[in-house]
Specification:
With 557 residues, the protein is an alpha/beta fold. Helices cover 42% and strands 18% of the residues. The N and C termini lie far apart (52 Å). The relative contact order is 0.15.
Length: 557
Amino acid sequence: MAYLIYFIRFVFRTLRNGLRRLGKAPECVSFILEEPYPVLSAPKAKGLQRLLQRKQTSLSDLRDRFERVAADRRIKGVVLHLTPTPVPLAHIEMLRGMVRDLRSAGKRVVAWSNSYDTSSYYLACACDEILSPEIGNIGVLGIRRGFAFLKDGLGRVGLEGDFVQITPYKSAADQLTRSDMSKEAREMTDWLADSTFDEFLRAIAEGRGTSVDQARKLVDNSPYPDVQAVEAGLIDKLVTEEDLPAHLSSGKKPVRISPWEGARKKIMPKPLRPPSKYVALLRIEGDIIDGRSKRPPIKGPPIPFLLSERVGDLTVVEQVRKVLKDRRAAAAVVWIESGGGSATSSEAMAAALRKLGAKKPLVASMGFVAASGGYWVATPAAWIVASPTTVTGSIGVLSGKFVNAGLYEKLSVNREVIARGDASTMNDGYDRYTPEEREKTWEFISHIYDLFLDRVTTARGRSKEEIDEIAGGRVWTGKQALDNGLVDELGSIDTAVAKARELAKLPKWAPVREVRMGKRPVAPVPSAAAAFEYAAEGVRMFNRTPAMAMMPFMIEE
């Protein structure tokens, strides 16, 4: 039946391609990159939520479009119209790889923008040419990481955090328990910023044909108005968007530039392949929780456990079992974009993935962040791929609770508890841990940490002492993780897919199919009440989850 469907599709594809060849394709295709595109397309919603969900282009969608452009010999070039958009450099690295593929296919790739920021200029440096109009500019360039410390603010409403950390480097709770940055957190932040900044400078030096030292001077002297940017060598030429057709022409006649939306029906589609074995794609995206995956009812700031995606072990384990049973799934790639969460859920996911990895090649691909529990779930993979600027590591555990006695006092609420069992009130938010309870909590997280170390040492073939020296909650960039032996290769999800095909001895064109959630719970109708309940549930997880494998919350700006 599958081959009959393939034959029918092949016939219709051949007829449609014949008509496309009769038409005239544009000489250049333009893409406006104006959103912080996710790497993978959002899972399909159901019911009313499906009507309310806006279709968002992903980097995977862009890659498919770029591949079609690269394969069509009639198209000579691509214009990337860039807008200042806060995008993690780890995601831009995937786009840079896609630009390199276009150039390898003989396409001239030009970046054009009214104003370049750090992210858009990082991408522009992978192109053949960087253009801007008069009155355009290079904005402020550099790396910034912001941290919010909530101890004083929580204290004003009578709340405080009481947490036990495996080491001071496991600083995920510092935002709740401190008013400023600890020495250990500052040390980590410095080495993360240094590594990310070095990668940014390397890209500028490579793209602009200069030295890293000169690239640093160019960045330090930013911003630049139009003429100064050209004189400094950061921009090649000042060209209005209306003059691009003439600028890109090799003769007297301006080239025809068509936006993708108008060109896609004239561009040849990708070859239709016969039914074959494929690479299964699993996603672990969001805060790791016990239970089923959930999506926030409204889009809000990506603060962990408040209005962020949540990925649950019940959902992921079901997906892994589905891949195990499917004989056509010859290999699997697990995409990880998570700062961690529940240690028990992380181990449940990892246990299922270990079983999958024992039967089929399993490759892990890390996005902007794959740390703490996000690294735990990568340990079963035979090969781990990270971007140079991925935030990973944070191998460590902490546990704690919110103490709300001050809040009850401010609200003039008198509270009484009747309990049985000496430890029954240990996780009660009304009191801080007693010395005995703190010691028990320390013993508990020490046991979980030893298990975490065992998982990493087994996966990486290193001694526990070697791993402990780079663990303890320490966070690394992908480049540093490679140097420390925590990942195997630098690249994007495309690199991971290529490795999975290689390990499974599949052809380069073997398809990739994402494993869907099946009966995914429908998110509630967007409302302020639903959003508040979703956030409140996230806060309650701190008291319900005995051990957290969670990295510090950082904002890259």
